[in-house]
Automatic annotation (TrEMBL):
The keyword ATP-binding does not apply. Keywords: Cell membrane, Lipoprotein, Membrane, Palmitate, Signal. Residues 1-23 form the signal peptide. It comes from Streptomyces tuirus. It comes from the Bacteria. Pfam families: SBP_bac_1. This is Sugar ABC transporter substrate-binding protein. The keyword Ligase does not apply. CDD domains: PBP2_TMBP_like.
Length: 429
């Protein structure tokens, strides 16, 4: 029950990876002095954006340099493959660019190493310009401060196959709205199809536990807590679905791409996605597209999941005033809005989601998805803890798989996952 990060990034970036090194520790923000004249040469690094958005960024940079005579922005764009390792190597070698495109999991070790500028100290005047949930997206548990400007956001609906719902005797105009509805409908569909049609194609991830209302981590950021009674309850439900083939038997090894294909071919009835997927449905599966249902993410908290990208300022930059000014320029309301109209993402700036582009429907499904997503983003949260690394995701997935296969109880699985994730957390330094 998630949008893949690849779907979130789509043409812009690929799957987000964790930073492989933590650095040597520090005050979490370096020198916070960003006052002074905006001038000098700075380097701006993006993440797999040049191929699709070169004219946009070249125009953005020219506009900034015109606004601030005496500045020059060198733009470097790194490939998606190995991006985390590249940042890690630059951090260790003292060659980190002045302004860096990051995700929350990438900024966390940089902040701990004292390489990410604390904007709450250096640029507090800008906080009010952004959605509260987005500004909070680059805070680190156990630390004070905010370590990147929020840039673009994404979220998305659940798509469902109306034909499969109808064939199972379910009302195709009344998709599940609660977890109880979802689990009941999934068992019905599996039963009616003799186990041939699953409703879901993915095992629960950390964000699914968050959406279910499971507390994921303590406030100090020193230990994970998703093995509580509510977490066990969710995994127990998934075990029931797996046994009934209401959860796809191949879910244990599924990728977002493979589950997407299962949905396209009618092997599963529901799949998360974004407005970007509608074009694929139309092109690759016209019969599915004609019978596509669109409904809200299911959550017990009232808040959908938010994916957030950020723009970090290197706290060691020799041109800090220019770096802060440029990071703000990239992420201000006007430039976020213009970028959002080029790709199916959403601005993180306060008030931008009230623009008619995000509020007025024109009868198309694409607009319907965009309007619904924009509305939900106003109160969305990023459920994935910023300290939850790729290794931790693998550890959780492995233990969940054992529980679904009956090799251990859901309670044992989550206890083991928390134990391993806590061990990895301690290694982060």
């Amino acid at each position: 029950m998630r949008i893949s990060r690849r779907a979130f990034a789509a043409a812009a970036v690929a799957v987000l990876l964790p930073l492989s090194a933590c650095g040597s520790g520090g005050d979490g923000g370096g020198s916070s002095d960003a006052s002074g004249k905006v001038e000098g040469d700075i380097t701006f690094q993006t993440w797999n954006l040049r191929a699709n958005f070169k004219p946009y960024f070249e125009g953005l940079i020219a506009e900034f340099e015109k606004k601030y005579p005496g500045t020059e922005v060198k733009w470097v764009d790194q490939p998606a493959e190995g991006y985390a390792d590249k940042i890690s190597a630059d951090a260790a070698g003292g060659t980190l660019p002045d302004v860096v495109n990051v995700s929350p999991d990438l900024v966390a070790p940089l902040a701990k190493a004292g390489l990410a500028l604390d904007l709450d100290k250096a640029a507090p005047q800008y906080k009010k310009e952004y959605l509260p949930g987005a500004w909070a997206g680059h805070r680190i548990p156990g630390m004070t401060g905010t370590y990147a400007f929020p840039w673009y956001l994404n979220t998305g609906p659940l798509f469902y196959n109306k034909t499969l719902f109808k064939e199972a005797g379910l009302d195709p105009e009344k998709p599940p709205k609660t977890y109880d509805d979802l689990f009941a409908d999934a068992l019905t569909m599996a039963g009616k199809s003799g186990g041939k049609v699953a409703t879901l194609a993915n095992v629960p991830t950390i964000e699914d536990f968050g959406r279910y209302g499971v507390p994921l981590m303590n406030e100090e950021g020193t230990a994970f807590t998703f093995n509580d009674a509510k977490g066990v309850e969710l995994l127990t439900k998934y075990k029931e679905l797996y046994d009934a083939k209401a959860l796809d038997p191949q879910a244990l090894t599924a990728t977002p791409e493979s589950s997407g294909k299962k949905f396209l071919t009618g092997a599963v009835a529901m799949n998360p996605g974004s407005a970007l997927d509608l074009g694929n449905f139309k092109k690759q599966a016209p019969s599915l597209y004609k019978n596509i249902g669109i409904t809200d993410q299911i959550t017990s908290t009232g808040h959908v999941n938010m994916y957030v990208m950020g723009v970090m300022v290197n706290s060691q930059s020799k041109r800090k005033p220019a770096a802060v000014a440029f990071a703000h320029f990239v992420t201000d309301a006007a430039h976020q809005m213009s970028f959002a109209k080029k790709v199916a993402i959403f601005p993180s700036t306060a008030g931008s989601l009230d623009d008619p582009y995000f509020t007025k429907e024109d009868g198309t499904d694409e607009t319907r998805v965009r309007v619904a997503a924009a509305k939900s983003l106003k109160t969305a949260v990023n459920y994935t803890p910023v300290l939850f690394s790729e290794q931790m995701k693998i550890a959780l997935r492995n233990e969940v798989a054992k529980a679904l296969q009956g090799k251990q109880s859901p309670e044992e699985a989550l206890d083991n996952a928390v134990k391993e994730c806590d061990r990895l957390l301690q290694q982060q330094g």
